[in-house]
Design a protein that fits this description.
The protein has three helices and no strands. It has 88 residues and is mainly α. Helix 1 runs antiparallel to helix 2 and helix 1 packs parallel to helix 3. It starts with a helix and ends with a helix.
Length: 88
């Protein structure tokens, strides 16, 4: 356990940031899940709309430090591939 005042403050800050990061990660995953569900259902229009909404959310996660840039690019690419397969 933290002994010094600065260490205790650091623990508080870490806990607060963790909550924010969890919320942001959860938000991003919700958008991704909507795309995957629409693609799995074969609903082309819904999948396209969900993908258009999910792409900026994934990139926001990059700017917030939730994901690395290449990870986000890979996620977007794979989602695009699923949407394209669903529309075919």
């Amino acid at each position: 356990m933290a002994n010094t005042a600065s260490a205790k403050k650091a623990v508080r800050k870490i806990e607060a940031r963790t909550e924010v990061n969890k919320a942001n990660r959860s938000r991003m995953r919700t958008y991704v899940r909507k795309v995957e569900e629409a693609a799995a259902a074969g609903d082309r229009d819904a999948a396209n709309e969900a993908f258009k909404a999910a792409q900026p959310e994934i990139m926001k996660a990059v700017s917030r430090g939730i994901l690395k840039k290449n990870t986000a690019a890979r996620k977007v690419s794979r989602l695009a591939k699923r949407v394209k397969a669903a529309s075919a």
